[in-house]
Amino acid sequence: MNTMSPVCATLDLSLSEIAALSCRAARGAGFEWGEADEAAFASVWLSRAGIAWIATLLAVLDTAGRSGSPLVAEGRWRGPGALCPLLTGIALADFALLPEGPGQGELVLENVKHPLFLLPFVARTSDALSRPLRITSAGFEGNFSPGAVPILRFAGAAERALCEASSVSIGICEAGPETSRWPDRHRSTVSAANIRALSEIAMKMTVPTSAQSLAGAGAAGGDND
Amino acid sequence: MRLARLGSAHPTRLSFLRVLLRRLQREKWRFDRPLFNLDEKGVGRVVYRAIGPERTYSLVCFSHDLPPEMRSDRVIATAWDATFALFDGTPDEDDLDRLEANVPLQEAGRINPRELSLSRANRSVRLFDHVVERLSRGLQPDGDLLAETGYLMRTTAVYGSGKFGAADRDLIANRPELMVPFQAEMLSVWLTRSFSVDLVDHIAHQRGGEKAVRLDGEHRRLLGVGNSTGLGMAPFLVRHPALFNNWVMVREEALARVRAQEHATEQTVSGFQAALANAIDNARLWNSDHPLQIAKLDDLRNGLDLLGAHVSSEQDWQGDHPWDALWRWGETNLPLEAQEALLSLLLEPHGDLVDELASCMAANEAASAAIDGAMTVGRLQALMSENYDWAVRPDYGDRQECARFWYVSEDKLEPRLGERYEEPGSELELPLDTGRQVARLASAVENRNSSEPVARLVLEEPRLRNAVRRVQASEGRPFAEIRDNLISEELMPIDMLRCKLAFFGATRFDPRSDRWVRISLFQGLPYPGELSGEMQA
Q1: Strand, coil or helix: what is A106?
Q2: In this predicted structure, what is the pLDDT of residue A158?
Q3: Which of A204, B318, B444, B495 could form a disulfide with B3 if both were Cys (CB 3.0 to 4.6 A apart)?
Q4: What is the ipTM of this complex?
Q5: Would the CA dihedral through B113, B115, B116, B122 be positive or negative?
Q6: With a CB-CB cutoff of 8 Å, which residues 115-154 of chain B face chain A?
Q7: In chain B, % of residues over pLDDT 90
Q8: Are A216 and B418 within 8 A, CB to CB?
Q9: Among A113, A115, A114, A225, which residue's Cα sits nearest to residue A170?
């Protein structure tokens, strides 16, 4: 990604660029490839929903490697420590139709870091269940209907939902009022500083240049005729 | 599908560039060139427009004065003979200024969603100079030389789908004219072809003045646009299994429809004969210095000769299901290279049967993006038995089976293929080793309870997640995977490249190594303003 232009304070990224950068960064931060793909999905979803995806993702990846996987049990998920929202969100969508998911009754996820990052997975869970879901936490509330734009309400600044770990409760709810279609949002304006930070993490999944590496890519002999 | 067949793929009438030209012709698109501003060295701006019934697309071209020592096809190049953007609509002066500030920088610049594609091209110096020299003296160039090289300019990258700020595919995929994959990219390359010819005419005129002539219709038909491709394209087929499945499925369905015909009409038989004659001609002109390709070209020429002999002697055109009989004969008697050519020939006269399948070559990739956590391990095992027996066959403990690894380079962020036991970096390998991953998955679930949900499996063994997703996505998608070990010592990356390029419609496949190829696009096909009548490749 050509993000190094120092002149621009901000950059408009396409969804494709968001997905590619997020995937590489998650991998660079130590998540498995399948999990990195989920991080890309989440970033794109947050961007389309107009939520600060890059700050959230940077916070999620700002750990010493991959940790905070949930102990999944019926009704309540917890960790040894604070839960990683990427790993928890992934498991939430995976367990959507199972007894450990929110389909049978209220599900509490204890002490989730940066819980905003759960939202794309709550949406996916709602789609899988074909039922509307409500999510409640200290910093925000949300109503999700399958395929529809979620309705989100923040208690105070959205940044709180970003930074503070909190417990989150998810359950099936009544269908809400009709919501509008997803906005046609295919750009995300991000700061050059955030791009640089995310790119640095992403670079950890690349292999440094060597003469061998350069030779391993091109034509044998000249390519100019 | 296996790489042996995929790597012998030929373009067909369902290739993306053929689909594009049929639409442009059917919908009577108009073409013009509202800006042509080149100086005496050929430097400046040119704009070509394709005007459809609902929308207009413009190829904005910047022509540069490139010092010869800077000319390189590698993605690490920083300057080119010409750079391009396909603009959504008609650009105004502000758009052109913005594009001029960015497009010549290519990856180092930024474009926005009004741009659908970003590309660059270099001259084929030898041919370009020859053509300029002849035209400037009032003469047409040597036709054999044109036919042999096949292009005045070659693209070295054509980016679309949101790269460097371009419009995401989702933004435009609902437009009928862009729904089939790579239509914007193909349109961009087709108009680049016009640019390459106009540029050579212009420079010849600058040199020769009154005496100079333009390239005539017959000679310019011999030219396409070249393309130089390396490993950058290779991961695509693996990263887009639902899409790739649909491409192959369409090709198989098209073949099945032709084989199912009870009788052959006079028209389809003569169409077939004409296509065969073209193929034999093309095989004669198609050259390569690469030993692998030389062997394949021998197979092709011999195979086509055999085919020609069979068709004029033993083939019973009046018989029952004659196309099926011909295909079966080919499967038994022709090398793979010629079988794939035969497939293309069978489709060619049957446009009314198969052309409508083009719209099935798009895919809703989101449908296979999420894992179904409720699926049982037992069901997963059944899917692996059904679709992945090829994956579990190799012994991945054998050095030869794991000799390579795919990775992303730090410089230029491009995909590369390394030698696992000779270079550092394999701990960072990309997940293109699908076969090995699924083999590991199969082994990991061997002793698990078959009624266990997959959600529990991937929670406990997150490394298996990618393999699980692929296995689940293979349900109902028999062609999603390239059924070969992509990290084997035996892998020929050019087989992957040729497969994708054949779907584009590329001809004159010419490997320069086992991972770098030259091809030609649109060679022999009409130019804007020439779209009428049947278009044979």
Answers
A1: coil
A2: 63
A3: B495
A4: 0.93
A5: negative
A6: 122, 124-126
A7: 89
A8: yes
A9: A115
